[in-house]
Write a structure and sequence with these properties.
It is a single chain. With 250 residues, the protein is of the alpha+beta class. The protein folds into two domains: 64 residues, no CATH class; 146 residues, Alpha-Beta Complex (tt1808, chain A), CATH 3.90.1570. Helices cover 22% and strands 29% of the residues. It has a six-stranded mixed beta sheet with strand order 6-9-11-12-13-14, with helices on both faces.
Length: 250
């Protein structure tokens, strides 16, 4: 059934009942923009303890705020939603977080970091990768988290699945801070990486020209080092890695 977006808004309950027999295609300005699909368990109802029905809407209006950003949902709900979108999301501690588009400075810093890491790791068992690359942390659906570090260093390539996703903690996770993600990377991801088995977490603060490296072990912070623009960056985990901090901001 094809219906106007305004009609759906004003008569949403009616169109939910229509879903028993067919999908509802939402039309705006004469063009299909979304699809309402019945939840698999809709007809028989849901018992206590089962997940609530979710009506996922395909299509997206750039003038509307993201409908999932900051929203709580189960891991299985996140997976279903994530499979239906081209947007980049992270899933941390039961909440969904939209990843914004990176700036020119952000991408330049990532490129310079990748160059330094790639040169150092050439011929070694570890390898560095650049986002977007999904990393799945946690062994059970109840504690599963999904992140996309700006860069990561992987020393166990066997953890890649057939979809090219990494299952498990990378050896090194690197995030470039920006005004929009600062608290996300400083608080949520720091806590997540610490308890998930990441060995080192790097945070690059381009605005203040500072690189912070957190060394983890046994779910504890072992050491934190900060490098200013005139310093040489050294990694405790990647023994022998040394490069000028200034090279990151060129």
């Amino acid at each position: 059934m094809f219906v106007n977006a305004t009609d759906v808004k004003n008569n949403f309950g009616f169109y939910l009942s229509v879903l028993e027999n067919e999908d509802v295609i939402v039309v705006r300005n004469g063009k299909p923009v979304a699809r309402l699909t019945r939840h698999a368990g809709w007809k028989d109802g849901l018992s206590i303890g089962e997940e609530p029905a979710e009506y996922y809407i395909d299509g997206y209006d750039p003038n509307e705020p993201d409908r999932y950003d900051g929203r709580s949902m189960t891991y299985s709900q996140f997976v279903k939603m994530y499979e239906k979108t081209d947007k980049r999301y992270e899933y941390i501690d039961g909440k969904v977080w939209l990843m914004g588009a990176p700036t020119e400075e952000h991408q330049r810093i990532i490129g310079n970091l990748y160059f330094n890491l790639r040169n150092f790791l050439n011929g070694k068992k570890c390898q560095t990768y650049v986002a977007p690359l999904d990393v799945y942390l946690g062994s059970r659906s109840t504690d599963r988290n999904v992140v996309q570090p700006d860069l990561l260093v992987v020393c166990n390539k066997a953890n890649f699945n057939e979809k090219g996703q990494y299952i498990g903690a990378p050896s090194v996770a690197i995030e470039v801070l920006s005004p929009s993600n600062r608290s996300h990377d400083l608080i949520r991801k720091l806590s997540l990486y610490l308890r998930s088995g990441v060995q080192e977490y790097w945070m690059i603060d381009g605005a203040n020209r500072q690189i912070s490296i957190y060394r983890f072990g046994e779910d504890q912070l072992i050491r934190q080092q900060s490098f200013n623009e005139n310093d040489e960056v050294r990694s405790e985990y990647l023994q022998g890695l040394v490069f000028p901090a200034a090279s990151v901001y060129e």
